[in-house]
């Protein structure tokens, strides 16, 4: 498959649809996008928001305030599928009651024909269906609905990469930047290669151009996104201006103004010692790696088609800890993969103990239609739950231990806003991606002109600022602290 980079002529064509839609949308004022799943979907929704704002609409806080509603779906786990159809059910009366409302569904689930057919049969009030690879031609698809076409269901091929899409970014402290699409790994349990196609990298020059613009716009933190960022650039011809992920990261780290560079996700089979050396070399590259283990048992890893062994995984962990002191390592683990024995599971617990992950996202195996693992004999639910509970208990103890080791330390934190959990607290993350809730003393708030301001204003004003926090207390999923040095910068 050859990647098709959307050319200027096609970009101009879509811009014409944006202009035409502005008048066709007359009387409609707001849009609402509900996003399920990962940060790649979040970034896709930001682009859809940017396109709708270019057509003159404003963001609504809830679907009932909007005339264009999009549900951006995730196909990774069964509960994501259930949530989509639940939400569509909830929107039935609103959509059927409002002739001018347009309801669309997009994202990874729409690349699976069984989901599109289910919408066709059971949700006739859905006006528009398209895939994650069709976002660049959303203006054209919406135009067809606006011109009266009933039910525009048009999911395109997986060979495109589009640039220069307008974007409405959710946060002002962190900018999401997708560097590549798709995945070639075909892990036995995963739908992503079927839902997002083969790996397609954006040209390095285009990414660096976007990063420079973001730095000028005042973004201090960026998140480089891909299903498997370590294979970035492998599908492109290498040259003086086009390298691999380590080269991209090296260039990005030298862009003035970018104080934090994060990236996700890494694959243990592709992560290189050069990449870890590059993290060690540039302090503005985050002190955190998310490295999905999935299982600690080699027979299970083989069955999952993960292409590395538990020993190779641990070699990377040790190398990273040696080269980047204080680095936090987080992971994903699936329990109950078909055929997993108690001995296999014990191997997983052994690696979790040895690696001492700072955090782990733990999942029970969820069979996905279309994947190699679908239809394999499943582990009894009670056995799966028992293993899941034992794993979570061990990992939570490790997470708390790694947090307790930080009590008394002072760390630099990028403020994300007000804490959701602790009243009158702010929240943010350090370079190692630890979640920190903290207080700022009244004198400092006064000096920032926020002494009399309400908390909402305080949170909004300080979002995107840096400060230094003394860690006072450790919880399983967060840290508590106080501002030191009385300054926010
Ligand atoms: S690396 Fe495996 S788990 Fe990750 S997106 Fe690709 S196929 Fe899915």
Low-confidence stretches: none
CATH topology of the largest domain: Rossmann fold
CATH architecture of the largest domain: 3-Layer(aba) Sandwich
CATH C-level name of the largest domain: Alpha Beta
Q: End-to-end distance, in Å?
A: 48 Å
How would you sum up this structure in a few lines?
The chain is of the alpha/beta class and 489 residues long. Helix content is 37%, strand content 21%. The protein has a six-stranded parallel beta sheet with strand order 3-2-4-5-6-7, sandwiched between helices.
Write the layout of secondary structure elements.
Blueprint: E1 4-5, H1 8-24, E2 30-35, H2 39-54, E3 58-59, E4 68-73, H3 78-97, E5 102-107, H4 113-122, E6 128-129, H5 138-146, E7 152-153, E8 160-161, E9 174-178, E10 180-181, H6 192-196, E11 200-201, H7 204-216, E12 221-225, H8 245-253, E13 260-264, H9 273-281, E14 288-290, H10 298-303, H11 310-323, E15 328-335, H12 342-355, E16 359-364, H13 381-404, E17 410-418, E18 426-429, E19 435-439, H14 442-447, H15 455-462, E20 466-474, E21 479-488
Parallel strand pairs: 1-8, 2-3, 2-4, 4-5, 5-6, 6-7, 9-12, 12-13, 14-15, 15-16, 19-21
Antiparallel strand pairs: 10-11, 17-18, 17-20, 18-19, 20-21
Helix pairs in contact: 1-5, 9-11, 12-13
Bound molecules: iron/sulfur cluster.
Can you give a write-up of this model?
The chain has helices at residues 8-24, 39-54, 78-97, 113-122, 138-146, 192-196, 204-216, 245-253, 273-281, 298-303, 310-323, 342-355, 381-404, 442-447, 455-462, and strands at 4-5, 30-35, 58-59, 68-73, 102-107, 128-129, 152-153, 160-161, 174-178, 180-181, 200-201, 221-225, 260-264, 288-290, 328-335, 359-364, 410-418, 426-429, 435-439, 466-474, 479-488. It has four domains: 4-160, 3-Layer(aba) Sandwich (Rossmann fold), CATH 3.40.50.12160; 171-285, Transcription Regulator spoIIAA; 287-405, Transcription Regulator spoIIAA (2-Layer Sandwich), CATH 3.30.750; 410-488, Beta Barrel (OB fold (Dihydrolipoamide Acetyltransferase, E2P)). It has 489 residues and is of the alpha/beta class. It is built from 15 helices and 21 strands. The mean pLDDT is 95. The protein has a six-stranded parallel beta sheet, with helices on both faces. Bound molecules: iron/sulfur cluster (SF4). Iron/sulfur cluster is lined by residues 183, 185-187, 190, 192-193, 227-228, 267.
